[in-house]
């Protein structure tokens, strides 16, 4: 799926690696977060201590992994990468924590999916750089304290609301990443085109920026498809190539993908505009509630198509208009 903000495979991983900015100054947009991080990192380096633990929250593809790497590069620190789903037992986490070197940055992606038992171990580790390891079984079991090297935890989550409070409270700073403005996405694309050695017209860049769901990962992916199109058809990477390539891949004029459209279609036609509950919606489109809530919904809310009410999700007048439908309830009032 071209506009799915999730990562797609090895080819994309390699491609993303090549395009990742390596410093805060190279990182486009998120001005507020950049300023906040810059201050925190500079202060830590002036005092020669490890920076506070940092939580990066926001929808997929906005640059959380990139920022974690930058936090390590900027302080010239080694980086260890892990993820919540890979930590299913406290022992998995103990193995990682006990092998960290002083000052290391530990990145845990999707930290909200870590096992509960590991979470509790992490509290102590974050606070005191110490863990308790259980030795033996049953009545003879004892806990042995183990000191850890001071480290900086960088957690990433698409759902900061899912983190238990004791964990959230142990981060010194939470960065909320926002969808990118069109102008920022143009800068991301200009930079990527330069790194790819691709000559692309200004209007083509602007068109892609308006159709990538405010997400750099999708911007870069659409750019690749346009490059392919120009290559295969022997033409320029111009506006016509963007239109043709995106039509081929079923990306609509405002960047909605199949799942976005399906969700809106269900809310509008099956539920008469809502309210409809998250779980009902998820079942109707055959996706996990988590995917709807963290991937699909944030963008639909941001473009003003969907609002969240205590009784469920409700379509807005703008959504009815975009899909060329009339709201039967509006007609009654
Ligand atoms: P996920 O949580 O799904 O891994 P993410 O939020 O960690 O997503 P990244 O992997 O950091 O997203 O970024 C995706 C791609 O977008 C990378 O190739 C990166 O180069 C590019 N990118 C992200 N943010 C920026 C930015 N601010 N400036 C330039 N490129 C960016």
Summarize the structure.
This protein is of the alpha/beta class. The chain is built from 15 helices and 9 strands. The strands form 3 sheets. It has a 5-stranded parallel β-sheet with strand order 2-3-6-1-7, covered by helices on one side.
Give the ordered list of helices and strands: HHEHEHEHEEEHEHHHHHHHEEHH
Question: Which structural class matches the secondary elements?
Answer: alpha/beta
Ligand types? adenosine-5'-triphosphate
Number of strands: 9
- What is the residue-mean pLDDT, rounded to a whole number? 90
Sheet with the most strands, sense and barrel status: 5 strands, parallel
Number of helices: 15
Distance between the termini: 40 Å
The best one-word shape is: globular
Q: What level of helicity do the residues show?
A: 40-55%
List keywords for this structure.
333 residues, alpha/beta, two-stranded antiparallel ribbon, 15 helices, 9 strands, 48% helix, 13% strand, binds adenosine-5'-triphosphate
């Amino acid at each position: 799926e071209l506009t799915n903000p999730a990562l797609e495979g090895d080819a994309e991983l390699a491609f993303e690696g090549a395009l990742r900015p390596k410093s805060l100054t190279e990182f486009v947009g998120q001005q507020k977060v950049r300023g906040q991080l810059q201050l925190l990192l500079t202060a830590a380096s002036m005092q020669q201590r490890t920076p506070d633990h940092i939580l990066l929250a926001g929808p997929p593809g906005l640059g959380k992994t990139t920022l974690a790497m930058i936090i390590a590069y900027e302080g010239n620190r080694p980086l260890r990468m892990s993820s919540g789903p890979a930590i299913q037992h406290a022992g998995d986490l103990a193995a990682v924590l006990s092998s960290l070197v002083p000052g290391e940055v530990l990145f845990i992606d999707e930290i909200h999916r870590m096992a509960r038992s590991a979470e509790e171990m992490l509290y102590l580790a974050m606070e005191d750089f110490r863990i308790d390891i259980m030795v033996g079984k049953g009545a003879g079991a004892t806990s042995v304290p183990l000191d850890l090297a001071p480290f900086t935890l960088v957690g990433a989550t698409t759902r900061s609301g899912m983190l238990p409070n004791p964990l959230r409270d142990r981060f010194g700073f939470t960065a909320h990443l926002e969808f990118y403005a069109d102008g920022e996405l143009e800068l991301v694309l200009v930079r990527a085109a330069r790194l790819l050695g691709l000559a692309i017209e200004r209007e083509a860049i602007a068109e892609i920026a308006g159709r990538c769901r405010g997400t750099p990962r999708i911007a870069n992916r659409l750019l690749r498809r346009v490059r392919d199109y120009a290559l295969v058809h022997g033409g320029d990477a111009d506006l016509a190539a963007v239109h043709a390539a995106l039509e081929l891949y079923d990306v609509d004029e405002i960047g909605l993908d199949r799942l976005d459209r399906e969700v809106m279609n269900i809310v509008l036609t099956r539920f008469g505009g809502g309210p409809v509950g998250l779980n009902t919606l998820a079942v109707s489109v055959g996706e996990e509630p988590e995917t709807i809530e963290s991937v699909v919904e944030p963008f639909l809310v941001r473009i003003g198509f969907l609002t969240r009410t205590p009784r469920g999700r409700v379509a807005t007048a703008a959504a009815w208009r975009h899909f060329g439908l009339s709201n039967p309830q509006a007609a009654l009032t």
